[in-house]
Sequence to fold (128 residues):
Amino acid sequence: MNYKFKEKEIMQDVMNYIDDTYGSHYAQSKRQATEIIIDQGHGTGFCMGNILKYAQRYGKKDGKNKKDLMKVIHYAVIQLSQDHYKNEKSVYESLNDDMKQYDLWNTNTSKTAPLRSVMSEKYNKENI
Fold:
């Protein structure tokens, strides 16, 4: 493919930027803050708000800061993942798998214990 705007190089830079975010201080715990925000049902507002924030900041704070545009792209990718590339599992099923991995289920009864975190509050009603 003969790209006219260095798309291949730019996409590689975007992937490198995203890879670096997984090693940052934001990604030190099992679940990133962005995942929790999405699980609480605020993902679209969070992503779109950050896209606007970094797009408006571009050229003003630290000049034409390439990192601001990378953040715009990254939040757009996160939103794309939620709207167009969703996991086959529901959020509840993913949380269920996470809980099983850490043996946090009540194994003394035939019924599983309700999820106990704030992020899964909306799922507790279904499973009590």
